[in-house]
Automatic annotation (TrEMBL):
Annotated organism of origin: Flavivirga amylovorans
Catalytic activity: 3-dehydroquinate = 3-dehydroshikimate + H2O
Assembly, per entry: Homododecamer.
Group of enzyme by EC: lyase
Name of this protein: 3-dehydroquinate dehydratase
PROSITE patterns assigned: DEHYDROQUINASE_II
Cited NCBIfam families: aroQ, PRK05395.1-2, PRK05395.1-3, PRK05395.1-4
Gene: aroQ
InterPro entries the UniProt entry points to: DHquinase_II (IPR001874), DHquinase_II_CS (IPR018509), DHquinase_II_sf (IPR036441)
Domain of life the protein comes from: Bacteria
Function: Catalyzes a trans-dehydration via an enolate intermediate.
Pathway: Metabolic intermediate biosynthesis; chorismate biosynthesis; chorismate from D-erythrose 4-phosphate and phosphoenolpyruvate: step 3/7
Family per similarity comment: Belongs to the type-II 3-dehydroquinase family.
Length: 139
């Protein structure tokens, strides 16, 4: 069984509660239940934190024993050298995902410290961005 981990960064625990025009109205836990049922043959772990160091610790923890990591570092994408270094340091391939198309938003969202060391980047497809990343790991 393939083992994947989804890691979500700051404020993504608010999904479905605020700003539905940008991020949709489904909570991540609701989405995760759907996706776990659909991909029952895949082990899909989930971790969310609002704390940069906890996200780095989680990358270290799963980055040598999982088949893939799906990372939405949220705002830290655009600021965190530490998260970028962690993605570079681990062995498990990382796919960077974003719900929104960060390139049609503010200029500061065009910069990513994750992308240079990610296997790929999927953005702008809403929560489907995560599903596309799962499919890329299992196909
Ligand atoms: O589009 C994405 O997935 C982002 O990673 C989301 C981040 C943003 O800083 C990135 O530029 C793009 C923000 C996540 C905040 O999520 C919220 C969800 C509901 C209500 C408020 C914030």
């Amino acid at each position: 069984m393939k083992k994947l981990t989804i890691i979500n960064g700051p404020n993504l625990n608010l999904l479905g509660k605020r700003e539905p025009n940008i991020y949709g109205s489904l909570s991540f836990t609701e989405f995760l239940e759907e996706i776990k049922q659909k991909y029952a043959h895949v082990e899909i772990d989930y971790f969310q934190s609002n704390i940069e160091g906890e996200l780095i610790d989680k990358l270290h923890e799963v980055g040598f024993n999982h088949d893939g990591i799906i990372l939405n570092a949220a705002a830290y994408t655009h600021t965190s050298v530490g998260l970028g270094d962690a993605v570079k340091a681990i062995e498990t391939p990382v796919i960077e995902v974003h719900i929104s198309n960060t390139f049609n938003r503010e200029e500061f969202r065009h910069q990513s410290y994750i992308s240079p060391n990610a296997r790929g980047v999927i953005l702008g497809f809403g929560l489907q961005s995560y599903e596309l990343a799962i499919q890329s790991f299992i196909n």
